[in-house]
Write a structure and sequence with these properties.
With 267 residues, the protein is mostly helical. Helix content is 65%, strand content 0%.
């Protein structure tokens, strides 16, 4: 499946707008571009990109269809959600699957914290707006956590799942970059902007069942938060950074509820 990787660099078509960059506020000036879409460090064919996209759908199906009666049992679907697309990406790209994950520097840690803080502000503001106009459904992910073992499993499992949620967004974003530049002829920046918006809607739609099909909550609150988190990837080209920001954000939101539940159970 890695035949595209063997294509000589000089013979690969150069996408429209290759070499473009957004301003320094959005992209670091370190010369690192989005991987794969332009054949660096490896190219994928259209069919391979479709398989990569289908792999995140398969992972999502495992997450939502397998039973999760408690946080310990939920570890399996959460691991599969993350592992399936990574395995498929490794099959398609060989060792170049690591291009999604760069070494984390001190500056990256600061970026994680900064985007987590920004995301919390955006999420709370949009959440208050939607609550006042449309009403909101509660996220029941912290319900029925019982004891230390389940609490540990919950945090480990959600950490793994949130890495999977970044794969669920970033792999389609890179696929769209390929199709919109190589097939539709858009410039690199125009394709990145379109992919940023489309994948936010994609991510929001996946959360509709979680929030009782509240479209306003899913597309405004979750979609808005997704736009912020994807910016962390656009800036750094490092999935660890957007995943780290996502984990910090969600754990900050989950922890008061987890602590309150533990306090009530101890009474």
């Amino acid at each position: 499946m890695t035949g595209a990787a063997d294509t000589p660099e000089a013979s690969r078509p150069v996408p429209a707008g290759a070499g473009q960059r957004f301003g320094p506020l959005l992209e670091r000036r370190d010369g690192v571009d989005f991987p794969y879409y332009n054949g660096v460090p490896v190219g994928l064919t259209s069919m391979q990109w479709l398989l990569a996209w289908l792999s995140v759908v398969a992972g999502f199906a495992a997450l939502v269809l397998l039973p999760q009666p408690n946080a310990v049992v939920a570890l399996l679907p959460r691991v599969l959600f993350t592992a399936i697309p990574l395995i498929v990406l490794a099959i398609l790209t060989g060792p170049h699957w690591r291009a999604l994950f760069r070494r984390v520097s001190g500056r990256d840690v600061v970026t994680m914290i900064g985007f987590a803080g920004l995301n919390l502000v955006v999420s709370v503001a949009l959440g208050l707006l939607v609550r006042s106009v449309f009403g909101v459904a509660e996220n029941k992910v912290t319900d029925n956590i019982d004891g230390v073992v389940e609490t540990i499993a919950f945090y480990a499992g959600t950490g793994i799942q949130l890495v999977g949620e970044e794969l669920f967004t970033i792999m389609p974003l890179l696929a769209l970059l390929f199709f919109l530049t190589a097939k539709a002829g858009l410039s690199r920046n125009a394709a990145a902007l379109a992919a940023w918006l489309i994948t936010a809607a994609w991510f929001a739609a996946a959360h509709l069942p979680t929030y009782d099909w509240n479209f306003a909550q899913a597309f405004i609150v979750i979609g808005g938060a997704r736009l912020v988190l994807t910016l962390a990837y656009i800036r750094t080209k490092n999935l660890w950074v957007c995943a780290g920001a996502h984990i910090i954000n969600d754990w900050v939101l989950f922890t008061p509820t987890v602590l309150a539940g533990a306090a009530l159970a101890a009474i």
